[in-house]
Design brief:
Order of helices and strands: HHEEEEEE
Number of strands: 6
Strand order of the largest sheet: 1-2-3-5-4
Number of helices: 2
Strand content: 35-45%
Distance between the termini: 34 Å
Radius of gyration: 16 Å
């Protein structure tokens, strides 16, 4: 018996898996292909490069300190991207794929990158 990575096994998986799971698997494979790290493997304090799709983008209320927060999902886990002093950034919108670099921190039990360097990715 093979390792389970043959073409027939992949076809059966694609035909029987949930669409969200297939999308997560594709994102996870793309992360490794471009040399980024999976979010699930990142630890607090590490300098990392992550790649994923923005699930949500939230603007701070008008009366609060200006911040823009976006949840990046790479197929394994989410990372919150926080830009301090910004209310909008052109191109940062839900559904967009980006590569972000920075130092992982923890906030309320979630992984966060503050003021990350980022690159907008073209559709694949």
């Amino acid at each position: 018996m093979g390792t389970g990575k043959g073409p027939f096994r992949r076809l059966v998986k694609r035909l029987t898996s949930d669409v969200d799971q297939l999308d997560a698997d594709d994102l996870s494979e793309h992360v490794e292909a471009v040399g980024a790290r999976k979010a699930c493997d990142c630890q607090s304090g590490e300098q990392v490069t992550v790649l994923g799709r923005l699930r949500s983008v939230e603007l701070s209320p008008r009366d609060a300190v200006a911040t823009l927060e976006a949840e990046l999902f790479d197929g394994t886990e989410g990372v919150t991207l926080v830009w301090l002093g910004r209310r909008r950034i052109p191109g940062i919108e839900p559904g967009r794929t980006i590569k972000a670099q920075g130092r992982i921190a923890m906030r309320d039990g979630r992984k966060v990158l503050y003021n990350p360097y980022y690159e907008l990715q073209t559709a694949t």
